[in-house]
Structures are given as C-alpha cells and as structure tokens.
Amino acid sequence: MTERTILIADDDRAIRTVLAQALGRAGYNVRATSSAATLWRWVEDGEGDLVITDVVMPDENGLDLVPRIRRVRPELRVVVMSAQSTFATALKAAQRGAFDYLPKPFDLKDLLSLVQRALAAPATATEEDGDGPEEERLPLVGRSAAMQEIYRTVARLTTTDLTVMITGESGTGKELVARALHDYSRRRSGNFVAVNMAAIPRDLIEAELFGHERGAFTGAMARGIGRFEQAAGGTLFLDEIGDMPPEAQTRLLRVLQEGEFTTVGGRTPIKANVRIVAATHRDLRQAIRAGVFREDLFYRLNVVPIRLPPLRERAEDIPLLARHFLDRAKAAGLPAKSLDNEAVERLKAHPWPGNARELENLMRRLAALYPQEVIGEDAVAAELMEAEAVQGAPAAPAMPETLEQAVERHLTTFMSAQRDGLPVRDLYERVLAEVERPLLRLALANTRGNQIKAAAMLGLNRNTLRKKIRELELPVVRGLS
C-alpha cells in the first residue's frame, strides 16, 4: 500500500513535533510547517493526502485556507484544529468545507481515528456558505468536551436536511439548538415554526399541525393553515414530541414516509417541504415499551440524535455561561455586574436542577437586586439557599391532586382557549374518550397486551374492550409474556 502523506500547519513547534511523531509511528509520511504560505505551496504542488491546519497562524487564518484548498483540490480533506473552541469555529469550519473540526487540547487516539476516517471517506462537494455568525450572537455557549461534540454535530448538520431528535432535561436549551440548526442552515430564509405538543388539546393537534378545511368539524368556519404549511421552506420544531397522542403519531409517520400530507377534511395532498427537528425530555424508549409511542415513528425521527447534557455534567462551562447571562441582563437594561472567584466556585458547586435556565434567572436576579458591581459568594449563597429550600420543600402537608381535580384543571385550561372560536360541542363524549384512552392504554401496558387480563382489571366484557380498542385506535402489543 502506498504511504499516505499528511500536511501539518501549526505555529506551535511542540504541537508539530507531537503530531509528526504520532502520525509517523502510525505509518504516515508527515510534512510540517509553521506558515500558511508554505502549506498553500505544498497544496498547489499536488502534495499530501490530508491537511491538518491550525486556525491562528502568523501569516493567515487557517479557516481562510479551507475554501481555497477545496477549490483547487476538492478531493483533499482538511481537518481544522483550534484552541478557540466555540460554536463559531466549528460552524465556520463545516461551512467552509473542512472534513472535521478538532478542538485543542485533544487526545492523540482521537486524532488518529479522525485521520483514518478522513483518508477513507469518499470525495464529496461541500458548499461554502459565507463567514458564519458573529461570536457575540452565538446561541450556544460553553467550552466543555460535551459542548464541543454538540458544536461539531450541529455544524455538520447545518449543511443537510436530516431529521434531528434533541433530548435533554428541561432548561438545557433544546430550542436553542433547534434554532441554531435552522438559523445557520440553507433553510434560514424560511420560517422557524415551533410547536409544543404538551400545550395543545389532544383532539386539536392534527388540525394544528396539518390545517383543516372549512366545515371539517364543528366550529371550523374557514380554512385553517397548519404548522406544516407555515413552515414550508423552513424548519418545523416539534417540542415535547413524547406528548403527541397516538392518532397524531400515525399521521406524522405517514408524512415522514410519503413526504406529503392532507388537511383535516381535505383530499388534496400537499408537499411537506420542511425540515423536522423534534425534542423531548422523556425517555421515548420507555414510552415505546409502555405502548404510548410508536417505535417506527421514533426511528423516523431519531435519524440524528443530539443529547444535551445537564449543567451539572459540564460545571466547567458555568463561569462562561454566568458571564454570558450577565451580559444579556446588561443589554436588557439591568446594571452591569461581575462575579468574584468565590461566587463562581459556589455556582459550580450547585446541582442546577433547572439547568441553564435556572442559572440565567439567578444572574438576572443578582443584576437587579444587588447594588454592588462585583457580586460576592455571600449574595450567591443566599439566593441559592432560597432556591434550594423551595426545590427541596416536601410536597406534604398538601394533599395529592385527585383525579377529579386533575380533570377539572385540564378542562378549565381547555375552555379558556375557546376564545379563539374553537369547537365546544360534543364535549361530554370527547372528555369521556380522553379519560378512556389513557385508562385502557395503561391497563393493556400493565397486562402486557393480554386483553383477557385487561378486561378483568377494568371490569369490562372482553368484547366490549376489543370494541373500544378499535374505536379509540389504540396500539396493542400482543404476545408479551
């Protein structure tokens, strides 16, 4: 096999030496330089099978070299290294045509694995897409290893229309990632439409997503445009997808399979020209096992999974995030503040059950309520102790919410939404169906799909149960032991 040559450009002699030794031991021929000009001359002369370049060099920015290399030698892979490990660097590297981005410091095993992948990858054309965003406008903040991997993934995805599933606890920034996928993609000129599945009454979700024709249901006095049409040419963000009812899941699956949909009450297919980004804080695999989420839909949505780590798993990002949120508070008109070292350490020791959202709220409180310009540990500790007391307060002596109270609360919320002219007729039957669905679904889940046992549990005749399963279109998992 012909020896492959790797061209390295970095103004740090120690890095050049370490890389040359590691790659040499792996069987590669290595040429290393401290200047972009020398690297460019080698590329123009047809040398090298792979380029590894730093961003900051004395004579030229390494990122500016990438599109030039891609134009003269489109088959030549370029890996970009940088100590400026931000979303901007990863995004610019991807958009200018780099094969990958490697944040410093890195493990040599990761580098060797990346080199193998780059040399084995087939040649592809990569669109050059401008200079990317300004640093201060970036939606994603943090330099931890976990965030670096997210930056790299999001940067790659901005050049595709692949469906993405974002998972993470509440407050981790799932919508921020979804917006970044849209704002820095080829679809950014289209609309970004966000829908929270948990906030829509279940029997209105299909009309909300796909629209409806006049007369499709009681109260539909005119044609309604759904979110799929609103997002045409852009991105549709389906938040809390785990709360989508089974009937809407079936219809969404059909759209993902066929690439088109019909409105409620309509017959003419409409092309679904949207990129789907879904998000959830739930464990959807557990929901699949419980029979409340379709497995085939899960795999259609989970093409590229992105897990957002909770803040407690990336405590090293807290100082940067705190500074970012204080700057945002200042931009919103609050006094300029900073934190002393002891205050920062106290923040890093907090478990942050509310994640970045909780940290942002704390920074806004500190900026608004404390007169000193430099916030100390005492102020931070006082605010966190109050928050911890609220979060740790026991539920008792308050009594648990009864089923009747829960139903009344949900109906109150539903009826308050009728100001929009939505249908309120046949409410009795609809409410009974809403209660029947989860009751039957849970009974079947608890009896592992055994309808005889489920009917006995519910006190129903088996034929009656089978009829209701058909009427409510409930998925039934059979044959489980």
UniProtKB/TrEMBL annotation:
A Pfam family matched in the record: Sigma54_activat
CDD domains per the UniProt record, alphabetical: AAA, REC_RcNtrC-like
Limits of the Response regulatory domain: 5-119
Location, primary (coarse class): cytoplasm
Residues that bear 4-aspartylphosphate: D54
Top-level taxon: Bacteria
Keywords of this entry: Activator, ATP-binding, Cytoplasm, DNA-binding, Nitrogen fixation, Nucleotide-binding, Phosphoprotein, Repressor, Transcription, Transcription regulation, Two-component regulatory system
Stored Gene3D superfamilies: 1.10.8.60, 3.40.50.2300, Homeodomain-like (1.10.10.60), P-loop containing nucleotide triphosphate hydrolases (3.40.50.300)
DNA-binding recorded as keyword: yes
Presence of the UniProt keyword Ribonucleoprotein in the record: no
Matching InterPro entries: AAA+_ATPase (IPR003593), AAA_lid_NorR (IPR058031), CheY-like_superfamily (IPR011006), Homeodomain-like_sf (IPR009057), HTH_Fis (IPR002197), P-loop_NTPase (IPR027417), Sig_transdc_resp-reg_receiver (IPR001789), Sigma_54_int (IPR002078)
Sigma-54 factor interaction domain residues: 140-368
Task performed by this protein: Member of the two-component regulatory system NtrB/NtrC, which controls expression of the nitrogen-regulated (ntr) genes in response to nitrogen limitation. Phosphorylated NtrC binds directly to DNA and stimulates the formation of open promoter-sigma54-RNA polymerase complexes.
Listed PANTHER family: DNA-BINDING TRANSCRIPTIONAL REGULATOR NTRC (PTHR32071:SF95), TRANSCRIPTIONAL REGULATORY PROTEIN (PTHR32071)
Name of the protein: DNA-binding transcriptional regulator NtrC
